[in-house]
Amino acid sequence: MPVVTGADQAAREFSRHPGAVSTPTRTDVLVVGAGPAGSAAAAWAADAGHDVVLADAAVFPRDKACGDGLTPRAIAELEHLGLGDWVRGRGQNRGLRAAGFGQLLTLPWPGGSLPAHGGAVARTELDARIRSVALERGAQPVEGARAVDVERDGDRVSGVVFDTAEGPRTIACRRLVVADGARSTLGRVLGRVWHRDTAYGVAARAYVRSGRHDDEWISSHLELRGTDDEVLSGYGWVFPLHDGHVNIGVGTLATEARPANVRLRSLIAHYAAQRREDWQLEGEVRDVASALLPMGGAVSGVAGPNWALVGDAAGLVNPLNGEGIDYGLESGRTIAGLLGDEGDGGDLSLAWPATLRRQYGSAFSIARRLAGLLTVPRLLPLAGPVGMRSRMLMTVALRVMGNLVTEEDADLVARAWRGAGRASLRADELPPFPAADLRTPLAAS
Ligand SMILES: Cc1cc2nc3c(=O)[nH]c(=O)nc-3n(C[C@H](O)[C@H](O)[C@H](O)COP(=O)(O)OP(=O)(O)OC[C@H]3O[C@@H](n4cnc5c(N)ncnc54)[C@H](O)[C@@H]3O)c2cc1C
């Protein structure tokens, strides 16, 4: 049973009567967006003794388009937040069942320095639970408040302006963490630009009840075929949840030069029809929701002197599998660790992109290079059957595609992957998390 704090009660009160709890007017750390990234940032910042306000446009619990899959990296972060037992209580899976090109492989999670299990929890439930950790640690909630603008003091942000049911409200802050997701409207106000010349994701998910009670493995179909039977550069998934439903979805890769050109609603219906018998799907798929996903740090302008973007807002999504809950949680924890330095004269403008590049630069660089290759027509139909014939190759692929290689891992695959990543990063014309003025943006998000 979670501890109910004053902040929690305030949150519930606000949910019942948005506007009933007065919006705070100032705080030390203001976090905008209460998804995994924002809630983790708020939890860790409150833990470090900062006064924190955690604001969101939505009223919780709220849905979010997602596959709901939790990689071992995400499980590790949930453990850090004290949610290990909670997430394990919602089922755990042992790895990936990968199908395609006439093959079916079961590939266990590699383990190593990360947990050897994953999970899957609907985001309505997961995000509300992570957010409650932030509130339990003392973050003050604000809901139904859409951040629309910032107030500045020179090049620093001194406050954020919100649209609320009561009209505009401003919350003054010393530091700002922007965790408002892939579209990042507040990030755009601050000058964030999404570069779409490297791979980005186009994905949709739905829910449907399944008679097949099989949550030991998550399933991916690496031979995703469109409605004209063409092979698409992406994959379909069936992630079983603990309540008898599955999250079913499709995701494809695109670049500015090679847009996806898929109709996601038709594609997800087509994919579900193919899976219906095998997964004993009952009734129609429902709650179809989709989004575009910036990937691999392909956004510039991720920080200013006293503000930083985290999670999807900073393009922290793995280009090879589209997952970002783990990076959201990790970046929330990492930024909280830097907020104390800023008070001593530290400036996040350079420190934050440098930290992100150190942590993710080489892995994202090589991953988005490979993801870009997958968008080349006819490559996947040629390479897919070769790859799928080798269990060893696919075991390595699962590990590197999932970025389940950490700095602590010293085996051959880990060293080779890190080496390839460093070489890729050196060759990048536009490295992940470029400074705002590095190059004229190709496309603003
Ligand atoms: C179809 C699909 C499937 C995916 N599947 C997976 C998967 O299986 N596993 C995985 O790890 N990742 C998956 N991802 C990626 C994952 O959903 C994201 O990486 C993750 O949600 C990022 O978390 P976040 O906290 O950065 O942003 P979000 O979870 O998007 O949270 C952003 C929050 O900000 C709020 N907000 C937005 N704008 C404002 C504003 N102006 N003012 C105030 N609040 C605002 C929103 O209401 C929201 O609560 C998938 C994505 C898609 C689209």
What does this structure look like?
By secondary structure, the chain is an alpha/beta fold. The protein folds into three domains: 6-64 and 124-195 and 296-358, 3-Layer(bba) Sandwich (FAD/NAD(P)-binding domain); 69-74 and 90-121 and 197-292, D-Amino Acid Oxidase, Chain A, domain 2 (2-Layer Sandwich), CATH 3.30.9; 360-427, no CATH class. Helix content is 34%, strand content 26%. A hairpin with a 2-residue loop joins strand 4 (95-100) and strand 5. Helix 2 runs parallel beside helix 8 and helix 9 packs across helix 12 (412-427). The longest helix is centred in the last third of the chain and has 27 residues, at 348-374. The two termini are 42 Å apart.
What's this model, at a glance?
The protein is of the alpha/beta class and 445 residues long. Helix content is 34%, strand content 26%. It folds into three domains: 194 residues, 3-Layer(bba) Sandwich (FAD/NAD(P)-binding domain), CATH 3.50.50; 134 residues, D-Amino Acid Oxidase, Chain A, domain 2 (2-Layer Sandwich), CATH 3.30.9; 68 residues, no CATH class.
Brief descriptors of the model:
disordered N terminus, D-Amino Acid Oxidase, Chain A, domain 2, 445 residues, FAD/NAD(P)-binding domain, binds flavin-adenine dinucleotide, disordered C terminus, 26% strand, alpha/beta
Gap from first CA to last CA: 42 Å
Describe the largest sheet. 8 strands, mixed
Could you state the CATH homologous superfamily of the largest domain? FAD/NAD(P)-binding domain
Mean pLDDT: 88
Tell me, what is the CATH class of the largest domain? Answer: Alpha Beta
What fraction of residues sit in β-strands? 25-35%
Q: Which topology of the largest domain does CATH recognise?
A: FAD/NAD(P)-binding domain
